[in-house]
Amino acid sequence: MSTSHKPVEANKVRNRVFVAIGAVIIIATYLYLVLGQPSEFAEGDFGQASLIAIIGYLLGSVLIAVGTIHRLPTTTIALVPVAIAVNIVVGQISASIGLPIYLDSIGTILVGVLAGPAAGALTGALTNVIWGMTISPIALPFAVTAVVIGVLAGYAGRLGMFRRFYLAPIAGLITGIIAALVSSPIAAFIFGGATGGGNGAIVAAFRAVGNSLLASTTFQGLLSDPLDKVITFTIVVIILFALPSRFRSRFPFVREYNVFGKQSELAAPTRATRSGAASTDTTTSTVGDDSASADNGTTPRG
Amino acid sequence: MTTTLYEDRESVIHRLNPVTKLVAMLSIIIIVFAVQIWWVALGIIVFVVVPAAVVSGTGGRLLSLSLKLLLPILIVLVLLQGLFFPEGTTVLAEFGPARVTVEGLMFALGIGSRIAALVLCSLVLLLTTNPALLMTSLTQKGMSPKMSYVISSTLQIIPAFHTRAQSILLAQQARGLRLKGNPLRRAGALLPLVSPLVLGMFTDVEERSTAMEARGFSSPATHTSFVIVDDPLGQKIARWLIVAIAVTSVVLSLLGVFK
Question: Which residues of chain B make contact with A291, given a CB cutoff of 8 A?
Answer without folding.
Answer: 213, 218
